[in-house]
Every structure is written in C-alpha cells, then in structure tokens.
Amino acid sequence: MRACLGRMTETRTSPPASPSSGAAPVVVVTGANGLVGAATCAALVERGAHVRAVVRRSGTAPGLPGVEEHVGEFHDPDLASRVVDGASAVVTTVHPMGSDRETQHRIGVEGTPVLARAAAAAGVDRFVHVSTAAVYDRSPGAGDVDESAALVGDDGGDYPVTKRDTDAALGRVEGLTRVLVRPPAILGQGESSVWNTLRPQAIRDDESARHANPAQSFAWVHLDDLAALLADVATGRTAASDDPALGPVAGGCTAVNVAGEPATVRDYTEVVTGALGVEPVWDDGPAWTGQVRADRALGWGWRPRVSLSEALDEVADGLRG
C-alpha cells in the first residue's frame, strides 16, 4: 500500500437505536446527507450503532432512529473536536468532486486530516475514509489493480490526484487505525448518483456523452455493498489484524478495494441508452481492460450481495420510472 471556515453547530437528535446507548458504538459520518453517507448511516443503524451525522444544512441528516445531526463544516477544528468526543469510529465521505482543483485540495487534502487528527487526539479507534479506485493508474495496458498497484501521476486529473493526495495525507496521521476504502463506479439510486442519475442525464441530453469504447472495463460496486463494508469496518465487525490480507492493521493505514463482478462499458451503456431510447456510439482505440481486484476485502469477510444484472436492472427501472 502507498501512503496511504467553520459555522456554528446545530444539533437535532432522533431517539437512540437502543435504550442502553452506552453499549452501542458511536460513529461519526461526514456527508451524511449524500449518496454514500446516507447509505452508511442506514447500515450503521442496522448494526445497532449510534450515528453522529455531520451535514452542512440543518434538517438534511437521515431521519433514522439513533441518528444525531450536527451542522457545520467537518474540517472546522472546533466542530471536529466536539463531534469526535467519545466516538469509537469516524467515516468520512466528503470530497467536492466536480469542483475546481483548489477547492478539492482545500477540503479533501487539507480538511480531512483535520478531522483525523481530532479523532486521534480524542482516542477514536478507527478512521474509515471513502477514497476511490480512480487513484490507480488504469491506463490502457495497466492490467488488474490491487492495493499495491501504481497510482496516477500528477497529470491524472483533479479528482484522482486530490483523492490520491488525501490518502497520502491520512497516511501521515498517527494515533488511530486508518482504512482507505477504494470503490470504483458506485451504482445505486439517488438524485446525486453519478451512474444512476447524472451520467444518464448527460447521455440523454448530449450526443457526445453517448460515445464509449465497448471493450473498456467498467469496474463498479453497488451502494448497498459499499455501505455494508464501511459499516462493518467502523463498528469493528471486521476485526483488526497484523496482516492486511485479513483485516485492517491496528494503528496503521490500510487501503482496501471494493468492487463487484467484472463488467464492460458496453454492459452499462447499452442498459442506459436502451432505457432512454437513444443509440450508443461505439468508439475504437486503446482502453483499460483490467479489473479492480477486491481480494483483500473478500479476505476481510466482505461479500457483495448485489449482482451486475440486479444493479443494471435498478438503473434501467429508475430511468424508465
């Protein structure tokens, strides 16, 4: 593995998941109103955790029993210190994808370690960060990528590079167990879902977005399976180990890929264009045809439950509906 300004805080509390809240793990989730954050909150509640949901706008945290809303910027040092006090784990899902590089660097590379350092100072056991498989070099001919694969260079694009640098910055924060979870394309319903909503909208509205290389690999994971791994790691259901093939290294910084079964861009594009009633435009040329290897996650006991056909049917049903 490779190296791995604030606002006043408002609080809205739902009834706890268990009357004996002291027995339940307390997990902080940033970006709790986002696609991955909301799904992670639900998975944590299912596991009996008490969730401190950090959001930027009041009233946007998931309205679930055991979810307590905290409003503010997660990288505000005062909010960070307050929200991690007494917590057992943190799951951070925030990265301003699509923003300019300076903003992505400020919030991701500079901001995320603020929360990690606060967690370490508070004695939090685990810090689980949602990274991305985009940090790997997946140029044509790169082949399969596992956690030891080469990372993108500085010309790899704003999102991959700033996510890479955020991972490296967290690798330098000591005093707690850090886990860098690296999903590829995330399939799952939601207004902000890139692959179920935003990308199909572009394909519908813009002919240039219908161009694709059918042979290119489409590495993916379903939102529910990703959230399950995040929740299991955060609550300690995934035990620590001195061998990263078996579990996150206690006190270390461990990357773990999470991906579903092999697929191609043809698989995804044909489903989307078919549901929208438009024709794909197939392009030739060099393309990455490897896979994102999730052997490490499987060694930790994670098992994807959503098949490719089920995930793509969900995409199509959402577009037709």
Automatic annotation (TrEMBL):
Region (Disordered): 1-23
InterPro entries: Lipid_A_modif_metabolic_enz (IPR050177), NAD(P)-bd_dom (IPR016040), NAD(P)-bd_dom_sf (IPR036291)
Stored SUPFAM superfamilies: NAD(P)-binding Rossmann-fold domains (SSF51735)
NAD(P)-binding domain boundaries: 31-191
GO MF terms held by the record: isomerase activity
Swiss-Prot/TrEMBL keywords: Isomerase
Biased composition (Low complexity): 13-23
Pfam families, alphabetized: NAD_binding_10
PANTHER family: BIFUNCTIONAL POLYMYXIN RESISTANCE PROTEIN ARNA
The protein's name: 3 beta-hydroxysteroid dehydrogenase/Delta 5-->4-isomerase
Organism: Nocardioides dokdonensis FR1436
